[in-house]
């Protein structure tokens, strides 16, 4: 159990320094700066939802690997946000439709002599496996999580800043003080409700990203605009920038055109400004 609120902990300077040094030794080494930073802009609501879920699944998986109370809190927050997304749309049918669409498009390539039939067959098998897995899901996805009194109590308080504090949710506080193995077992079980659809979404996004290679482009005076072919609906815009540039890409657009602006990064209070320099970058308009 955690420290009793009635006990006051007093640390001497030496003890505090030792704890600080021990904490520093236990921290993982700093993550190296990425050589390339990718910026993505979805051009329809379906892809937007898939990207948000991918982000939450990755975040949950990262924190799930650690044993601390704070990582369990972070994983729980991800689970609750995932549940919220599934409560707003019928994602099961959306994912099946998207897998069927990719399968139909790929089958048309079978007559193309330039296509590697072995790789094509492997990819079609993966799609069919994911479709079968989706059809095996009975009823609504994660319906048991939506009806859980324990999870709903945390979900309701999460909308309030600091609302999941120990005194607000004693049941949650109790759960967080259990052995890491027990907490992880519960979290894995709850996340397991999304295994099939999560793997399907990851496959869809992987195929979308791999459908179009990145090509070099130039943003004159920090801005790039492009009109899209309406006969080839674009799903996703991807931009790759060298990580050592002092710029970041801000993307906006819709079905017919998009704009990329390259802004000077700053953590100061002033607003980021578009650079007047020409910026070389790589671009992919994923249309699969």
What is the secondary structure topology, with strand pairs?
Elements: H1 13-26, E1 36-42, H2 45-64, H3 69-87, H4 91-107, H5 117-135, H6 143-146, H7 149-158, H8 170-176, H9 180-191, H10 195-210, E2 215-219, E3 223-227, E4 236-242, E5 247-253, E6 257-264, E7 273-274, E8 279-286
Antiparallel strand pairs: 1-4, 2-8, 3-6, 4-8, 5-6, 6-7
Tell me what you see in this structure.
The protein is of the alpha+beta class. It has two domains: 45-208, YacF-like; 213-286, Sandwich (YacF-like), CATH 2.60.440.10. The protein has ten helices and eight strands. It has helices at residues 13-26, 45-64, 69-87, 91-107, 117-135, 143-146, 149-158, 170-176, 180-191, 195-210, and strands at 36-42, 215-219, 223-227, 236-242, 247-253, 257-264, 273-274, 279-286. It has a four-stranded antiparallel β-sheet. Strands 3, 5, 6 and 7 form a four-stranded antiparallel β-sheet that branches. Strand 5 (247-253) and strand 6 (257-264) form a beta hairpin. Helix 3 runs parallel beside helix 9 (180-191) and helix 5 (117-135) runs antiparallel to helix 10 (195-210). The protein is globular, with a radius of gyration of 24 Å. The termini are far apart.
